[in-house]
Amino acid sequence: MQDGRFGVNQVAPLVKENCVAVAINGHMLYWLAKTDGQDGDFIKANRHPSGGNCFVLTTPSGKKLAGGNGGGGAREALNTGLKNWKLLTDEERKALPAGKEVKPPEADRCTPPVGGLILRSFARNLKKNERGELATITKADLKDKVLYPDWNPIYTEPAHFNVWLTEAEWKSLIPADPKKGATFPVPDAIQKRLFRYHLVNGTFGLPGSWSLEQIRTGTLTLTVEQVSPTLRMRLQGTALLTTDADPAKSQRGYDSRLSGVLTYDPQKKAFTRFDMIAIGDYWGGDYEGGRFKRPGRTPLGISFELVGGDNAVDRVPPLVHMDREQQYRAYFAAEKQR
């Protein structure tokens, strides 16, 4: 600490040492208020005037101690909040009595399906190096304002999202009588969900989605490569996603190839591997004609891997507003709802 302020690299360890860190979707506080506490009392009492992208310290019972925005705001909030915490009585530091917690229906929609499968997804903007090979974009590359207009260094990093499959859906990927060399399509519900909600460029912030009609072409197939002792299948496919039927006229698009490997253990009755990657040309910004677009078509890579769901970050809902019934239903009916 120096002059009452914390350095950026000191915020995280101090939060870890003194607080219980919780990340809350504050993009739309109206809906957020419906997902926490009795009629959202906890959120309403602790919301920051600016809404999202803020840092707030509270007591376990919900009394606000301090709040701020951005890196400097976080340091200030932590500094002030810890001082205010020391001024509280022992009673004020206690959590709500047992039995007073409220679990609204929206909370269930933010919980992975029982018996379901969770994939971790990473989306990353890429470039071609001098040999024409795919490579990561560096901060030094951002000096070129023609190739990278309006870019923040964070856009050079991968963005993390989750994919949810129900128990019935992941079981539908297992052939009843697998034969080596046999090929069959991935069920339409899974294909459409991956295409619409997970082949998107979420590296610029809140990800959008594709409508059904914007899937111009798309196929995913599984080929059995090994039957015993574990079932191993090769995944292959392509997807062309554009905002206009004519790709040349589209403000935004993604023309990708998909490949992967799935391994199912019949003894464990579970998938032990679900690796998939999408590589292709992306064009446009975060939304139609939006910010951060690069000139021409540029490479975008999206990877997927199986996770157990034991960590809190691996249980984050796939959609920003998964608590809304309409979006929840649309996600699990991507092959039907536009």
Structure description:
- The chain is of the alpha+beta class and 338 residues long.
- The protein has 2 domains: 8-102, no CATH class; 109-331, no CATH class.
- Helices cover 20% and strands 29% of the residues.
- The protein is built from 8 helices and 11 strands.
- It has helices at residues 8-18, 29-32, 41-46, 70-86, 105-109, 167-171, 188-198, 325-331; strands spanning 54-58, 64-69, 117-128, 134-136, 159-165, 183-185, 215-226, 231-242, 253-265, 270-283, 298-307.
- Strands 3, 4, 5, 6, 7, 8, 9, 10 and 11 form a 9-stranded antiparallel beta sheet that branches.
- Helix 1 runs parallel beside helix 4 (70-86).
- The longest helix has 17 residues, at 70-86.
- The radius of gyration is 23 Å and the shape is globular.
- The N and C termini lie far apart (53 Å).
- Mean pLDDT is 85; it is low at 1-8 and 27-38.
Radius of gyration equals 23 Å
Low-confidence stretches: 1-8, 27-38
Strand content: 25-35%
Q: What's the number of structural domains? A: 2
Class by SSE composition: alpha+beta
The total beta strand count reads 11
Question: Helix and strand succession?
Answer: HHHEEHHEEEHEHEEEEEH
Task: Describe the protein's topology.
Elements: H1 8-18, H2 29-32, H3 41-46, E1 54-58, E2 64-69, H4 70-86, H5 105-109, E3 117-128, E4 134-136, E5 159-165, H6 167-171, E6 183-185, H7 188-198, E7 215-226, E8 231-242, E9 253-265, E10 270-283, E11 298-307, H8 325-331
Antiparallel strand pairs: 1-2, 3-4, 3-5, 3-11, 6-7, 7-8, 8-9, 9-10, 10-11
Helix pairs in contact: 1-4
TL;DR of this structure?
By secondary structure, the protein is of the alpha+beta class. It has two domains: 8-102, no CATH class; 109-331, no CATH class. It is 20% helix and 29% strand.
